[in-house]
């Protein structure tokens, strides 16, 4: 195990990082195959995750095992995620979202660590923030292009670190701060294990989102968190970027969207149409 915590973390999480990159959800995302609904689902999960992470960071900001890596102005994402959710769901976004099971599991672990084993919190901060400053920047460009989001940054605040002008330099600073945390070998080993666990929790979040997406597509509905999720434009939400409408959904719209759903009403309309046609025919004669 390398001496520096930063080196040790990178080495210990190499395999799980590759696993995270190659989840179906992430692979699709990298190919630009991400719909608006899927993007909203990821943002929602991230909102719950960062709310828990940052609540525990605030609780432990004076803990010797966290102080050196406490960078709220530069890193914290909760406010950015709130802005993105308001952009996509509208002002009532809080009522529109709910926490999926795997995300809740991650949230529970974050609270447990923050309240019972705060010396491990750095593993969670490392996994998320250094990831967001690395691969996250590529994902931002992909999402912007795939969802036709404005290049002024609306809807992408999560990926935008206003307080970090140079991500590479900031990551170097962060690594050196991690290395300055005083830690005995046994604790260091636990931190490495916790970082692997954090990656696995992320993988479970992605796998669950993928499952929800697939289920919704099988049912012929766009993927949504809550069955009652509002449709386009009913309360000022910015439903930007044409969410790719799948062929099945188009057919569904063609067949169900154009005719009234009650058979009796449909029958009356057909009869009226026939009577009118005959009447017009007789009149023309
Ligand atoms: C499509 C998915 C992903 C891509 C393309 C990606 C890409 C990358 C790249 C290129 C780096 C290296 C940057 C550098 O050395 O400066 C990196 C680092 C990192 N990524 Fe990812 N990543 C992905 C997913 C994830 C996920 C899901 C997590 C965890 C939740 C994560 C966490 C990290 C961390 C912690 C680092 C910093 C490693 C270190 O320097 O110690 N990544 N990622």
Automatic annotation (TrEMBL):
Domain of life from the UniProt record: Eukaryota
Q: Can you name a GO cellular component term?
A: endoplasmic reticulum
Instruction: Identify the enzyme class.
Output: oxidoreductase
Region called Disordered, residue ranges: 218-246
One Gene Ontology biological process: response to oxidative stress
Q: CDD domains annotated for this entry?
A: HemeO
EC number(s): the record gives 1.14.14.18
Cell compartments where the protein resides: Endoplasmic reticulum
- Biased region (Basic and acidic residues) positions are 225-246
What Gene3D superfamilies would the database entry show?
Heme oxygenase-like
Where primarily located? endoplasmic reticulum
Write down the Pfam families for this protein, in alphabetical order: Heme_oxygenase
Q: One GO MF term, please?
A: metal ion binding
TM spans, by residue?
264-284
Keywords attached to this Swiss-Prot or TrEMBL record, sorted alphabetically, are: Endoplasmic reticulum, Heme, Iron, Membrane, Metal-binding, Oxidoreductase, Transmembrane, Transmembrane helix
The record ties this protein, via InterPro entries, to:
Haem_Oase, Haem_Oase-like, Haem_Oase-like_multi-hlx, Haem_oxygenase_CS
Q: Check the UniProt entry and state the signal peptide residues, or none.
A: none
Q: Belongs to which family?
A: Belongs to the heme oxygenase family.
Q: What is this protein's name? A: heme oxygenase (biliverdin-producing)
Q: Which organism is it from?
A: Chrysemys picta bellii
């Amino acid at each position: 195990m390398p001496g520096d915590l930063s080196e040790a973390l990178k080495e210990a999480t190499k395999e799980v990082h590759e696993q995270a990159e190659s989840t179906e959800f992430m692979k699709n995302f990298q190919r630009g195959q991400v719909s608006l609904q899927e993007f909203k689902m990821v943002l929602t999960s991230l909102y719950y995750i960062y709310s828990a992470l940052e609540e525990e960071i605030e609780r432990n900001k004076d803990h010797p095992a966290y102080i050196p890596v406490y960078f709220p102005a530069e890193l914290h994402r909760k406010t950015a995620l709130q802005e993105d959710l308001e952009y996509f769901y509208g002002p009532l976004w809080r009522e529109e979202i709910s926490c999926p099971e795997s995300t809740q599991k991650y949230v529970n672990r974050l609270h447990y660590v923050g309240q019972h084993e705060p010396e491990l919190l750095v593993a969670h901060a490392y996994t998320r923030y250094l990831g967001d400053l690395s691969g996250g920047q590529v994902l931002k460009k992909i999402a912007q292009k795939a969802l036709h989001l404005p290049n002024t940054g609306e809807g992408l605040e999560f990926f935008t670190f206003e307080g970090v002008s140079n991500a590479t330099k900031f990551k170097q600073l962060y690594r050196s701060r991690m290395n300055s945390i005083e830690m005995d070998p046994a604790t260091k080993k636990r931190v490495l294990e916790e970082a692997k666990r954090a990656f696995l929790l992320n993988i479970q979040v992605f796998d669950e989102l993928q499952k929800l997406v697939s289920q919704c597509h099988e049912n012929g509905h766009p993927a949504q968190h809550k069955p009652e999720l509002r449709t386009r434009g009913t309360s000022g939400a910015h439903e930007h970027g044409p969410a790719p409408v799948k062929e099945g959904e188009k057919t569904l719209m063609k067949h169900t969207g154009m005719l009234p759903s009650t058979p009796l009403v449909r029958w009356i309309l057909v009869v009226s149409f026939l009577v009118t046609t005959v009447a017009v025919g007789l009149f023309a004669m």
